[in-house]
């Protein structure tokens, strides 16, 4: 049994059908990348797993137990964390307050220092308010807020989007380290090379359908397959 099983889900925004019988799974300690063009349904898949959107049909299970239909707060309590594209931080609170708040409702949160070991920059900035952070620091804080809750699985939506190359390099290194220590993750990324550098397995999405599944190594070896559904080589 996989840690996360998404089975034939259909998701709609109003009358607009966005995910069609979509099935994916993620094994424990595995990093899965979701790739596809804009509008393919990647963000919607993460939002549906997190319970922000309820699937119209199909089932989502964590450790074999159904979670679809639960509110996001309940899904967070059983160990799912979404790091959304728009960065979930409180601008008026300091870095440390942001982290403490995220830890508050977690069953077994990490000590603050463990987050600071992952992101030393956050320690330097611990008394700064969220809104004064650079884009890269905000993304570190957003990921730090997920990590401090020690979740079973982290859903990352375009973590490298809009960041300078040097910051992307740092965040890719952190992602690699998290993958190496056995964190289970789903990552949605437009930066395919960055995602493939730490993903184990890949799903390609197109128009709300899974159109490709393979190991990251296989996909790296056949870039023409990648081009067929992502539009880049
Ligand atoms: P992107 O990289 O642009 O975020 P994506 O693969 O994550 O792409 P989604 O954001 O999941 O794609 O969008 C899938 C489809 O659902 C698109 O056609 C989009 O226009 C539509 N959609 C997304 N959010 C909403 C919404 N809140 N209301 C209505 N339609 C939406």
From TrEMBL:
Location of the ABC transporter domain: 4-232
Gene Ontology BP annotations: L-amino acid transport
InterPro entries on file: AAA+_ATPase, ABC_transporter-like_ATP-bd, ABC_transporter-like_CS, BCAA_Transport_ATP-bd_LivF, P-loop_NTPase
Keywords, ordered alphabetically: Amino-acid transport, ATP-binding, Nucleotide-binding, Transport
A Pfam family reported for this protein in Swiss-Prot or TrEMBL: ABC_tran
Single GO MF annotation: ATP binding
Phosphoprotein recorded as keyword: no
Cell division is among the record's keywords: no
PROSITE patterns: ABC_TRANSPORTER_1 (PS00211), ABC_TRANSPORTER_2 (PS50893)
Superkingdom to which the source organism belongs: Bacteria
Residues passing through the membrane, by range: none
Protein family: Belongs to the ABC transporter superfamily.
Protein name, per record: Amino acid/amide ABC transporter ATP-binding protein 2 (HAAT family)
Organism whose genome encodes this protein: Enterovirga rhinocerotis
């Amino acid at each position: 049994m996989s840690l996360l099983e998404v089975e034939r889900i259909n998701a709609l925004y109003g009358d607009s059908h966005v995910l069609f019988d979509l099935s994916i799974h993620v094994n424990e300690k595995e990093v899965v990348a979701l790739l596809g063009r804009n509008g393919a349904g990647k963000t919607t898949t993460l939002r549906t797993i997190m319970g922000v959107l309820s699937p119209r049909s199909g089932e989502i299970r964590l450790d074999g137990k159904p979670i679809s239909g639960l509110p996001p707060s309940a899904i967070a309590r059983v160990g799912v964390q979404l790091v959304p594209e728009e960065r979930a931080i409180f601008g008026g609170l300091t870095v440390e307050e942001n982290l403490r708040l995220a830890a508050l409702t977690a069953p077994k949160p990490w000590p603050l220092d463990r987050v600071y070991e992952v992101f030393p920059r956050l320690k330097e900035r611990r008394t700064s308010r969220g809104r004064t952070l650079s884009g890269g620091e905000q993304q570190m804080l957003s990921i730090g807020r997920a990590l401090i809750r020690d979740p079973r699985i982290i859903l990352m939506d375009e973590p490298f989007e809009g960041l300078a190359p040097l910051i992307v390099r740092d965040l890719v290194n952190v992602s690699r380290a998290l993958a190496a220590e056995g964190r289970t993750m789903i990552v949605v990324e437009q930066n395919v090379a960055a995602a493939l550098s730490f993903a184990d397995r890949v799903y390609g999405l197109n128009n709300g359908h899974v159109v490709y599944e393979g190991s990251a190594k296989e996909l790296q070896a056949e870039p023409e397959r990648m081009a067929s559904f992502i539009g880049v080589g």
